[in-house]
């Protein structure tokens, strides 16, 4: 027994030594320039940090305490066994027994500082939304609607104190965005039946109309089901809301006005006067979806059919529209940026190039700023730095499509920097996961390490 204990102690000592050496190796990487380049890496830690917001130039991140292994352990605690469904949904929702997220700020020196925070919950009910209660009517010999049990909605909000300023964010940014008003004391809330303005005391004001052409949502929903023959067909009053940069207008998709033809249309709501109106009407059963605002007066949207490729159009706020001329077999817009710039790939089915172009609102043509043909497949993670001087994008190389490489382009001198991995010991399997710009030179990168078959996410900063 003693001899077994000695062997166990020696093994434990070796493990501790290995852990200590690895720890020292990682610590040695912190804020140390790589010998092979003029760039600098900063290791933030073995935590899953994600960018929540940038407030007056200060990046705010939240800390997801649940790694994959943790999610499985809590899944066992809740469900009695490893439940993949429970594990996966935690990417979008946090169970009540899991603590709210921790928020920190990133300093210009790449250090993390805890933020003072207060989390409060706004509870509210939406008139007309909830569970229908049916009762039997002896006279009519059928079930009739008795009433609607209104559901109680909850929205958790984090009140943060950042450099002397008060900032409000969703306490669960993993779940869904919080559409705050410019005054930061109310938020807009969207459902398939409409949208509302809600203050932090839970007072509700409905902004959308109760009826369209004299018919309620429920009547239109029944009409849609009868028309399509699909009992799962859904009527959307205001779907995919996209706010203008100045926060005074919102454009959204709806199908309430095109049940007969099928498809959808675009509507615009002016928040300054609380009025909505159709923006782009449905013509032949096509679908419309807003991509984003080019400026405060022009919206880029896509039109798609069941048997044709997508097409892109630009509409002003009066509803005048023209087709945007994008080259390629199946162009797909990846993002919209200041100064009328867009990122797109010329063929979405292949996704083997990326193009940055500037839109001419007069001719509705685009002028190429940068284009790159890839030796791999483009991933969705791509964006411009805040001042537009740098472009970063990820792609899976043909040599190994289980990996992701990150390319950073200086658009001033067109110099490209290829990042294949973070500076960790060779032999350790790592995959670049995603990134965000912290400012005009710093990239916040999340990296997946595969250890004993389990994914562990760590956070890094790359200064270009």
Automatic annotation (TrEMBL):
Q: Which Pfam families match?
A: PD40
Leader sequence range is none
Spell out the family assignment given in the record's similarity comment.
Answer: Belongs to the TolB family.
Report the protein name in the record. Periplasmic component of the Tol biopolymer transport system
**Species in which this protein is naturally found:** Caldanaerobacter subterraneus subsp. pacificus DSM 12653
């Amino acid at each position: 027994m003693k001899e077994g204990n000695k062997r166990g102690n020696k093994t434990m000592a070796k493990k501790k030594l290995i852990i200590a050496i690895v720890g020292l190796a990682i610590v040695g990487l912190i804020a140390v320039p790589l010998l092979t380049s003029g760039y600098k890496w900063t290791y933030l830690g073995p935590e899953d940090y994600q960018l929540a917001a940038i407030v007056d130039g200060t990046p705010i991140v939240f800390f997801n305490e649940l790694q994959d292994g943790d999610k499985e352990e809590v899944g066992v605690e809740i469900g009695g066994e490893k439940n993949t469904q429970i594990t996966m949904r935690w990417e979008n929702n946090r169970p009540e027994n899991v603590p709210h997220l921790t928020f920190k700020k990133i300093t210009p020196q790449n250090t993390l500082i805890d933020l003072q925070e207060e989390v409060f919950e706004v509870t509210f009910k939406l008139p007309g939304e909830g569970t229908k209660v049916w009762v039997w009517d002896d006279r009519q010999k059928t079930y009739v609607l008795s009433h609607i049990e209104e559901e109680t909605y909850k929205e958790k909000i984090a009140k943060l104190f950042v450099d002397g300023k008060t900032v409000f964010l969703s306490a669960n940014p993993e779940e869904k965005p919080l559409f705050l008003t410019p005054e930061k004391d109310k938020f807009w809330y969207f459902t398939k039946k409409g949208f509302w303005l809600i203050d932090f005391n839970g007072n509700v004001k409905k902004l959308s109309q109760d009826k369209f052409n004299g018919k309620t949502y429920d009547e239109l929903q029944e009409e849609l089901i009868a028309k399509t023959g699909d009992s799962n067909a859904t009527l959307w009053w205001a779907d995919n809301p996209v706010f203008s940069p100045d926060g005074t207008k919102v454009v959204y998709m709806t199908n309430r006005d095109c049940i007969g033809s099928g498809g959808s249309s675009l509507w615009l709501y002016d928040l300054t006067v609380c009025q909505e109106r159709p923006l782009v009407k449905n013509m032949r059963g096509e679908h419309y979806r807003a991509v984003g605002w080019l400026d405060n007066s022009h919206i880029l949207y896509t039109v798609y059919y069941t048997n044709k490729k997508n097409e892109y159009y630009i509409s002003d706020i009066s509803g005048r529209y023209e087709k945007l001329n994008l080259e390629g077999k199946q162009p797909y817009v990846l993002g919209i940026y200041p100064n009328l710039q867009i990122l797109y790939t010329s063929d979405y089915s292949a996704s083997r190039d990326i193009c940055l172009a500037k839109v001419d609102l007069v001719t509705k043509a685009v002028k190429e700023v940068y284009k790159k043909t890839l030796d791999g497949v483009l991933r969705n993670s791509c964006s411009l730095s805040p001042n537009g001087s740098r472009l970063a994008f990820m792609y899976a190389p043909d040599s190994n499509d289980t990996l992701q490489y990150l390319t950073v382009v200086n658009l001033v001198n067109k110099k490209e920097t290829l990042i294949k991995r973070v500076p960790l010991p060779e032999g350790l399997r790592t995959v670049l996961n995603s990134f965000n710009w912290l400012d005009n030179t710093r990239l916040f990168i999340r990296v997946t390490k595969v250890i004993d078959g389990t994914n562990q996410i760590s956070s890094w900063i790359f200064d270009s």
